[in-house]
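Figure caption, in words: inputs first, then the predicted bound structure.
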Amino acid sequence: MTRLTRADLDALPAYVPGRNVADLARELGIAEAVKLASNEVPFGPLPGVAEAIAEAVTQSHRYPDMGVLALRAKLAERLGVDPGRIVTGGGSVALAEHLAKATCLPGDEILYSWRSFEAYPIIATGVGASSIRVPNTPEHGHDLRAMADAVTDRTRLAIVCNPNNPTGTSVRRDELDRFLDAVPDDTLVVLDEAYREFVTDDEVPDGLATYGDRPNVVILRTLSKAWGLAGLRVGYLVAQPAVAAAIRKVLTPFSTSMVAQAAALAALDAEPEVVRRCAVVIAERDRVTAELRKLGADVPTSQANFVWLPLADRSAAFAAACEKRGVIVRPFQGDGVRVTIGTPEENDTFLEAAGEAL
Ligand code: PMP
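Bound structure (4'-deoxy-4'-aminopyridoxal-5'-phosphate present):
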């Protein structure tokens, strides 16, 4: 048969989304499952967001502002950087793709820790780059020394996921300082901080405040998690102006939708509520971690809105057992299970299921 698409994609694992409440209703007849599989925050849209969306929708026959001027200005003010350094996109995962496109030619290398965010290998293959994966430490975090050693003259992008999805671990200032000093100036380092708002450890640096002035550092953030806009797809990056300009060249035109822009502006006005919600998630994260450890699970300390159970070959069975009890978690075959922190009631339901499943 004539081959119409790239042969190398056959070997690429597909992105596996967390299973949905509708999946459990269909397959197991469980009408009201608890979804703790996609690292969303469970409290609904922030105040003002639904109204902003309703208003924006009245103009949906028009294209959005391609320059995303109002949102970039608001982010710039909040972050204390020039708007020219900010690029928005359809989720930070889309921006990670654009970063790969803006830096890599076929045969170049993208370096990251593994296991980490499952989109990274897909993004690398998409641009014909080689994935260089450095295994996580036995404590499930990045091995930044080994990552620095793995940089070659073909490494165009090095990604540090901090905190790391799916293990929740984080890297601290001194090791990140050493890593960034070791990486050559012509390798772009991406600090993927999708979960920054949940960090409580003072030693885990805010990438923008600490490293934002380095010419080869890009900070990737999202409004999907703490800001409650996962369904609308809006993320942003902060880079040096020349890097930001190059990324803008490869952006899909108009990819931050009009509704996403309006919703993001409204969400950013609700920061006190975000702080309050994050505090609930953080307290629950620490409670769930302690309870799981009591059950004998070797849960690494998480700085994100999820926890990791390194259950190795028991992962799929654990997830299936949770589903039977109406709780959807996210297994990573042969490796572990990631459980998003939900409301206190949802977490109780999960802990009960986990108690039985473990
Ligand atoms: N980076 C990391 C580490 C993530 O876990 C995620 C979401 N799963 C993203 C980026 C992408 O988030 P979004 O595209 O919704 O902004």
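Residues 271-294 form the longest helix (24 residues).
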